[in-house]
Amino acid sequence: MKKNIFLSLLFVFFLAFSAFSQTEEEQVEAVIKSLFDGMRTKNAEQVAAAFSPEAIMQTIAAKPEGNTVASNSATDFAKRIGATPAETQLDERILDYQIKVDGAMASAWTPYRFYLNGNFSHCGVNSFQLVKMADGWKIVYIIDTRRKEPCEE
């Protein structure tokens, strides 16, 4: 019994030490991964937890008459993800993480490919701005591009 308690405490200590030993870049990457994991599982709470309450989302859309920018709140985005029909599969696959950190501010550049119901939909790049708050890194701004080609592999 004492051995089990000791092993349990040792395991908890190891997990806590691992969490604290993550670099700032790894912590930022974990927030972004959590966002897309939440999107895949349609977990609105997990998606919302990645953002600050005032976060802004924008998408650059290429149009024949010129580029336009569409804006959205992260709160509305999380609600829409949670309301996605069960049979709809959303899968944004991040191809690379280029993360820069300066104190409490971080920037991440993440090329991606997006799949809807297992079929390629579009590709582009996300540009995240994050701030380290009392409860950890939070996304305060994201802008992305969307296109059919050319796409990274």
From TrEMBL:
SUPFAM superfamilies named in the record: NTF2-like (SSF54427)
Keyword Signal belongs to the record: yes
Keyword terms of this UniProt record: Signal
Domain of life: Bacteria
Signal peptide span: 1-21
Protein name: Nuclear transport factor 2 family protein
Species of the source: Algoriphagus oliviformis
